[in-house]
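Page 37, continued from 36.
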């Protein structure tokens, strides 16, 4: 079985962009790959955060992912900071990573701009830690949303540089994109993102889903109900294609183009379909929250399995790099 690796930050609400772009794909891969899923708390430290909330958010992120279908009996779920080799390998990969390649990263430029002046080395180094995550488990197939594709191209470059310098330790890795690689936010302008507040969380209660959709931006051409629109320009139409039935999608397409239906009608149907998908996720999440020992046991077992592989790969890396082994 090929090994798959992916990660998610424990930075608050896990949203339907994460779900459609990444988590749903992860849950569908469990029988085909040896899957490793990591809650990347060290990555989450690269922007200001509340230390007293981090540990709980990390456990919540595990619970949400389990509720979305990551069955711990068929994959390894663990917390990045519990396996010290991630930071160790990151340092070794730093020694082969060109500064210029990191400086070109779109996410680094965007986040630095958002932060203003005081940009830290950790944010700059973020993609090297990602590379270490993948390389430490010799990950080959990396399911992500398309905002991470540039980071994965750089990961491939760093892995190639390591192999060329020290010998062929790591396999090549490939991104695996879902059918919804870039979920747009409810503002209709930006990708759905926790930090922009333009999202619907996967554990959001029905009333909140309805409210958020009711105020979401649609095709700007439809100012009045009688104005015809173009569904492909409507942010919510794309969500219909994931949550609604083929008949409903045709109803939306025809109704939007002929102005036969209003955006409100369209939103109501979407809201109920979305709620039908999210309700079992929320219910499973609430069950797990009521029994936190289950989640703790999953990450403890995950850390054990991750550590044993990480230790072997790290020994191989150090030997290849010629470090003293005693
Ligand atoms: P994070 O926590 O930002 O996002 C987790 C996953 O969700 C995807 N995603 C989206 N997909 C579609 N539409 C959206 N609006 C959207 N927003 C987020 C992301 O692409 C990602 O797949 N750096 C990674 C975590 C990471 C990682 C790794 C991933 C750390 N190490 C190693 C793969 C391999 C991140 O920030 O995820």
């Amino acid at each position: 079985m090929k090994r798959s690796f992916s990660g998610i930050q424990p930075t608050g609400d896990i949203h339907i962009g994460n779900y459609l772009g990444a988590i749903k794909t992860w849950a569908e891969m469990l029988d085909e790959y040896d899957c490793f899923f990591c809650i990347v708390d060290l990555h989450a430290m690269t922007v200001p955060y509340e230390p007293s909330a981090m540990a709980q958010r990390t456990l919540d992120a595990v619970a949400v992912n389990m509720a979305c279908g990551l069955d711990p009996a068929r994959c390894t779920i663990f917390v990045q900071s519990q396996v010290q080799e991630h930071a160790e390998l990151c340092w070794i990969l730093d020694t082969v990573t060109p500064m210029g390649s990191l400086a070109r990263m779109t996410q680094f430029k965007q986040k630095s701009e958002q932060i203003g002046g005081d940009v830290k080395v950790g944010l700059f180094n973020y993609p090297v830690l990602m590379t270490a995550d993948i390389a430490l488990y010799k990950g080959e197939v990396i399911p992500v949303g398309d905002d991470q594709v540039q980071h994965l191209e750089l990961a491939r470059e760093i892995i190639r540089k390591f192999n060329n310098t020290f010998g062929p330790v790591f396999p090549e890795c490939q991104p695996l994109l879902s059918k919804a690689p870039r979920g747009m936010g409810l503002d209709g302008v930006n990708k759905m993102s926790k930090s922009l507040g333009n999202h619907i969380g996967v554990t959001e209660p029905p009333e909140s889903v309805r409210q958020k959709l009711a105020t979401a931006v649609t095709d700007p051409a439809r100012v009045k109900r009688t104005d015809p629109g173009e569904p492909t320009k409507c942010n919510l139409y794309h969500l219909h294609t994931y949550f609604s039935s083929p008949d409903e999608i045709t109803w939306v397409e025809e109704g939007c183009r002929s102005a036969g239906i209003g955006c409100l009608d369209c939103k109501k149907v979407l809201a109920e379909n979305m709620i039908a998908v999210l309700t079992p996720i929320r219910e499973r999440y609430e069950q797990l929250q009521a029994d936190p020992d289950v989640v703790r046991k999953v990450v403890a077992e995950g850390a054990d399995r991750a550590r044993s592989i990480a230790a072997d790969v790290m020994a191989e890396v150090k030997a290849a790099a010629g470090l003293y082994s005693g």
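The two ends are 34 Å apart (CA to CA). Flag for discussion at group meeting. The chain has a mean pLDDT of 95.
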